[in-house]
Every structure is written in C-alpha cells, then in structure tokens.
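Box 3.1 A note on notation
Throughout this textbook, protein chains are presented in two layers. The first layer is the amino acid sequence; the second is a token string describing backbone geometry. Keep the layers aligned when reading.
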Amino acid sequence: MTTVGIYVDGPNMERSLWDSGDVAILEKIGTLLVEYGSALGKVIEGRVFVDEGTMWRSDRTREDYDRWGFVLVESKSFRHIDPRTKRVVFGKSLTDPSMHCAVVDRLHDPDCPEVFVLATGDKDITIVLDYIYEHGKKASVLGEANSISSYLITRCDELGFGCHIVQLVDRSIKARKERRAPPMEVSVEELKVTDAEGRPIDMRSYVEERNVRSNQLNPNNIAYWRAQGYSERPPDWERRAKKKRRKDRMG
C-alpha cells in the first residue's frame, strides 16, 4: 500500500487560516490533513514544524494535532527590539529550513514515504519539491486560498504534483453578504479552489485571478489606477497612495 507522510508549516497555516477567518478549518486542520492523506494511501507519519514564538490562536488546533499523533518539531526564532515599543519580539525563525531539511533527509531513508503531503503556501518549498521529484517520490501541497504562492501552484503543475487550496466552500461573497456562518463540520471534499459563488474552478484560472487581484491592490502597478478610473498612473501617485492608506487605517 502507498505510504504517506504529512509535513506541516505550523506558523504558515496558523497565520493564513486565522487571517482569512477560516477558524473552523484551523481548529480541525490535523483531522483534515489525515483525511486527505488517507485518501492517497496509509499515513505513517505526521510532523508539525513550529518555532518558540509560534502563537496558537486556538488550543483546539494543537489538541487536534495531538489527537492524530503529529510530532511537534520546534526550532529557534530570532529576537529583535521593536523600535516603536522598545520590546523584545520574535522575528524570523528556522521553521522553514527545519522543515525543508527534514523532508530532504527523509528521502534517503529506506522507509521513506512514497507521497509527501506538504501543508504550506510558501514558494520556498518548491526547492524541496524538486528533490522529491528527482528521488522518484510524489508530493501534494495544500495551502490557504489567500496566501498560497502562485509560483508554487505553477511549479506543482509542472512537476505533476497535486496542489489544493484549503478554504470553506461556503465562504463566498454571497454567504458573507447574507452573514451566514460557515459550517463547523468540514471534510476533505471541501479542499478545493472555488469562485465567489462556491463553484470549482481550475488552477490556471485561479492563478490568473490571483495575479489580477494582486496587481489591482498594488499602487505601484498601473492596474491599480485603472481599476479606480485612471487611464495611467498619476504623477503624484505616491502621495495619493499614502493618503488612501491613512484613510483606510482610520476606518
């Protein structure tokens, strides 16, 4: 039977799912990953890579990982002094390289999983995907809809690896307007890319949509100004952009 290993970028999933409001998924992410991995084969191991500064938004998330036997792998986080508050805060950590090295090392073991399920949206994981491909193994990437790298999606497609979006199907514009709460029960069938109305769309369309949306949110891009009715970027675009940012912050 095909063996499966699940490797999770803990801080990435915590931050992205919390920011998107998908708390229902965040609190059951361990269960969802095991369900998804079990559809590919027999899950033989699960690791969640965190750092000493990882903030658990919900205790249920960690409890869910523990329930399924995930091993927490903690790495160091660099500290620095915030110039505004003068407090010592956590900054960059060794979580990503720790996860990358663990997967690459595992590829040299006789009992290495045949399929790696990698939960992250960071494009840096593409280097690891190349190693997995070169060793004749398979991979499937799962990332949060609003933060997964477009390049990561494209690279998965080029290598023939799976790439799926973690989001709630009912989390659509229509549902938000009607203030419908997303369902608390989520399953592996809901790991997919959808449009605003919850209809499945293909990866290529999703990448194009993400690129257009990101350009229209970037004041340095002409698409941003054309979306606001300008034919070209105005000469004083920097001043206008700063003014809009101040306005947005004030509410």
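Residues 203-216 form the longest helix (14 residues). The beta strands are 3-9, 42-51, 71-75, 77-81, 88-93, 115-119, 138-144, 162-166.
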